[in-house]
Specification:
It contains 13 helices and 7 strands. The protein is of the alpha/beta class. Strand 6, helix 4 and strand 7 form a beta-alpha-beta unit.
Length: about 300
Amino acid sequence: MKTDKLFYRIFLSQPDLISELVPDIPANCEFDYSAPVVKETELRLDGLLTPISDDLNLPLVFLEAQMQSDDDFYGRFFAGIFLYLRQYKIARPWRGLVILRRHSQNLGSESAYQVLLDTWVHRLYLEDLIDEVNLSPNLSLLRLLVVSDQEVSASAQAILRNSNNLEEFRMRLDLVEAILTNKFPQLSIEEVRLMLNLKEADVTQTRFYQEVFQIGQQDGQQVGRKIGRKVGQRIGRKVGRQEGRQEGEVDIVIRLLNRRCGHLPIAKQLQIKSLPIADIENLAEALLDFKEMADLEIWLRENLV
C-alpha cells in the first residue's frame, strides 16, 4: 500500500503523465483521485482518476501499481472495475492503467480478460524504461523506481537539473525524495538528500535560474552601455558586466527567500541588495537550508558583522 500511495502522489503531481501512458487522453486533462470501496464484496480500488470536466467522452482511469506477482490480480482488478461501474451507474468510458515492475510477474491467467487487456487497458513495465534515453521528465521519475543503485544518484540529479522554474524544481525534489525514501527505506531523509548532492543540483543549476541570470546580465549591460557613452565604452562594458551579474544574482536570491521564508519586507530587500557580490553568493548557497524568516535573520547577524 505504501508503494501505491507513492504512485498516486506522482500522478497527481504530474497530471500530464496520464496522457503519456493512456491513449486518447489529452495532455491538459485534469483528474481527481479517490480510492472507492465497491460495497457488494468490499473490493477496494487502488486508484480511480476522474476527469474534472463535464465532457462525458473523457474516460475514468482505473490505476493499479502492482510490484509483486499475484495470480489473482486480473480477476480482482476487473471485478472491482465492473462492480464500480454497476454500483455508481457510470455513463462515461473507462480505461485501465496497470504499472508493473517486470514482464515476468505472474498476475494470473489473461485468457478471460484478453480482449479487455488488448483494447481498454495499458500496461507499463518499469523495466522497459531502464535502457531508454531521452525520456520525458515524467517517465524519468518512474524510471527512478527501478534504475540500479549505482545509477540512481546521477539519474535523480539529472531530473532536478532539468527543471524549468522554481516551482517545478521544488515539486520534483519532493517527488524524488519520496521515491528514494521508498527505494531505500533504511536511509534517513538527510542521507537521501546527501545522495542528491543538492549543493550541485540546486536551483542555481536549472535552466530557470540560468535564463533569469542571463536576463539580469543583459539588463546590467544595457545600464553599463548608457554609462559608457558618458565615461567611455570600455568602463561602461566593465560596469555593465559587474552590475548585471550582481543584479541577476540578487533577483534570484530575493525570489528564493520569498519562497522559503515568506514575503521579505522592503527594508530587508534593500539590505540584501546592498550586499557585496561575495556575500550574495554565500547567501544563495546558505538559503537552501532556510525554512523561515528567523533563519535569514540569524544568517545576517552571523555573517554581516
